[in-house]
Amino acid sequence: MQQDTEDIKGLSRQQIAQLLAGDIPDGAIVNLGIGMPTLVGNYLPPDREILLHSENGILGMGPAAAGDAVDPDLINASRQPVTLRVGASVTEHTISFAMMRGGHLDYAVLGAFQVSERGDLANWKTDAADAIPAVGAPWTWRWGARQVLVTMEHRGRDGAPKILRECTYPLTGAGVVTRIYTDLAVIDVTPRGLSVHAMLQGLSREWLQSVTGAPLRFPDGLRFIERDASGAPRYA
């Protein structure tokens, strides 16, 4: 059945972050990149011990700070005020980047402009006035993290797909992305191509494929994403 894009309400940035946070296992060490990934720290399950790392030198970062908890000297990589977990440490950049380059991260959560069907990542330079002007830390994460998770909108503001056969923007890393979280679906990058792990309840496979610039596989174990009464996303 053909679906009208006006009938589809995709996940918000907060809901994408919340869905991803629920997938991080107990005991994981996770770096959160700038932008949407920083929201993940606000939704980590309280019953799991997850250690957050920030490139500017925090190990044991807590959720965003508010009110009297705001300390202008304590910020994340997006320059937003954050809190510290009990036992956290604050270091300078060389130690922070050594943690990343030494392979100590289980996950790196990054934003992206584009991802290819092979897991190529482009997230650092476009013609946009607000684009990040240099590769920076993501170039390090692509080698240092065991898995790279990407958060992004499924389509650009012009409606063009952001998941493609080939990236058209300069690459940050080739073949580094493990899983993509968008406002419409959760997609795994596999040796056989892109496999849909979960998609929004109510979408058709044909419509999701039509707004994706690379072939999708829909496995037998495909799950669906629904929202509970509070609006929180969950797998059905």
Q: What labels describe this entry?
A:
single chain, 236 residues, alpha/beta, Glutaconate Coenzyme A-transferase, three-stranded mixed beta sheet, 4 helices, 31% strand
DSSP strand (E) fraction?
25-35%
What is the distance, rounded to the nearest whole angstrom, between the alpha carbons of the first and last residues?
Answer: 21 Å
Taken together, the total number of domains comes to: 1
Structural class: alpha/beta
Task: Report the principal-axis shape.
Answer: globular
The CATH architecture is: 3-Layer(aba) Sandwich
Topology as a string of helices (H) and strands (E): HEEEEHEEEHEEEEEHEEE
So, the CATH homologous superfamily? Glutaconate Coenzyme A-transferase
Provide the low-confidence segments as ranges. Answer: none
Q: What is the CA-based Rg, rounded?
A: 18 Å
CATH class: Alpha Beta
Q: What oligomerization state is this entry in? A: single chain
* Total number of strands: 15
* CATH topology title: Glutaconate Coenzyme A-transferase
Q: Sheet bearing the most strands, described?
A: 12 strands, mixed
> Mean of the pLDDT scores?
89
Fraction of helical residues? 10-25%
Discrete helix count: 4
